[in-house]
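tool=predict chain=A
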Amino acid sequence: MTVNSGNFDFTDNSHRRFNPLTNSWVLVSPHRAKRPWMGQQEVPFSPNEPEFDAKCYLCPGNTRASGEINPQYPSTFIFPNDFPAVKLNQPNFIDDGKEMTLKDRFMRAQQVEGKCFVICFSPKHNLTIPRMKIGELKNVVDAWAKLYLELEAEARTKATPYKYLQIFENKGTAMGCSNLHPHGQAWCLSTIPDEVDKEFRSFAKYSKEHSSCLLGDYIALELEERDRIVLQNDSFLVVVPYWAVWPFETLLMSKQHLCSLADFNDQQKLELASIIKKLTTKYDNLFETSFPYSMGLHQAPLNAIQQANNSSWFHMHFYPPLLRSATVRKFLVGFELLGEPQRDLTAEQAAKRLADLEEEVHFTEIR
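tool=predict ok
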């Protein structure tokens, strides 16, 4: 058991924190937050976006690069990505079962098939999640769940079934988003993505060792300590995880053992929409800017066997890059690339700043 001698100050002394989800460490250097900043500063991206953009390939009625014309959709709209990262019906690439050669040891490859989708959250080009109504966001959650169930059913009929659906959103040009229309993506793969697989392995190991669920126990601890809680409602809890890497990273978890969106009832979908809106609103209010982030859902594999379901637990990661202001961002470079991730702000400090913020947008957004 780790015991603090009484003189160790977590807000001033350097230390490492363990991430049980990925079996990794992060270096925390809170004293460095006092140093002056003379590095790169971003120029806030602030165009005056219209509600409809005739040049936007995601707006209703517009023609996409594929030549397809978007319908005049009134709500959330999903369509196959015109430039998918993975494809179906590729030539076979299989292991012939022969003895592994020296080249095979170092130059391994694995065939991946699947489908990719674009998920337009709203027909309005100038919205972001914090600016959407709860009902509009509930439509997004409904669409996520519907897609998950449809692909799970489709996978049962395929010779090479899909294994995982990764739903995510990149918001803002700082996160590489090339189109400001509110949208996310969903990649359905015949493999389990590496970050997700690390979590599944950790969940299974923890369950075997402790006869309980990793995230279930972690939620109980966070509710007891309350130092890193940002938001909560009856169904979900948002914390800055103890092991956070990004300055204002958050982890959104279902309080009950829900394996995937397929387990949600209508009230839980509504509460997920509500807490996502409140969290992203706090992000916007932090530096009074349209806050960039990458967000993703982690849940059970498609058609998971009982053992995988037992260790899966629905949660969402939010990774925002801003550090000190709307113009100063965090870069993972140097030691972080060559050694291990590092942060200057403790999880507890970040959680308090986010928790203290209003849950209603209080500035005029210029995206």
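The chain is about 25% helix and 20% strand. The mean pLDDT is 90.
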